[in-house]
From TrEMBL:
This is 50S ribosomal protein L18. GO terms for molecular function: 5S rRNA binding; structural constituent of ribosome. It comes from Anisodus tanguticus. It holds the Pfam family Ribosomal_L18p. GO terms for cellular component: ribonucleoprotein complex; ribosome. Belongs to the universal ribosomal protein uL18 family. Signal peptide: none annotated.
């Protein structure tokens, strides 16, 4: 073995490694918004998830890629990427958040996102489902 050869394989693969969430000091945690809604729109699907910021975990998510929802939308000949699909995703996400006991969320906008169209449909339907926006 020379200095250019890779280290020997010790048997631990990537699937066995556990990556802990980032450790943040208390002075930073008090300024973080606890639950943040993040949305992603592709040419085919609508995705939305709520992230618990202090632990960097996903509290709830909804997508038109989910097997049951996509199958139901295809059978009803509905589009999986339009404003109506975004409203369905927001409603489903709001129900899942209520089931988990999350009372309020804040919204994270990407640079190109404005409160219009699909973004507005997701946010309004989450609000109609009984989740407060902070």
């Amino acid at each position: 073995m020379n200095k250019h050869s890779p280290p020997p394989y010790n048997g631990i693969g990537l699937s066995k490694m556990v990556i802990p969430p980032p450790v943040r000091p208390e002075r930073v945690l008090k300024y973080l918004k606890p639950y943040v809604l993040r949305m992603h729109f592709t040419n085919k699907y609508v995705n939305a998830q709520v992230v618990h910021t202090p632990t960097a975990t996903v509290a709830a998510s909804a997508s038109t890629q989910e097997k049951d929802l996509r199958r139901a939308m295809v059978e009803a000949k509905e589009n999986t990427r339009d404003v109506a699909a975004a409203a369905k995703i927001g409603n489903l996400l709001g129900e899942r958040l209520r089931a988990k006991g999350v009372p309020a969320i804040s919204v994270f906008f990407k640079r190109e996102q404005r409160y219009h169209g699909k973004v507005k449909a997701v946010i309004d339907s989450v609000r109609e489902a009984g989740i407060e926006l902070v």
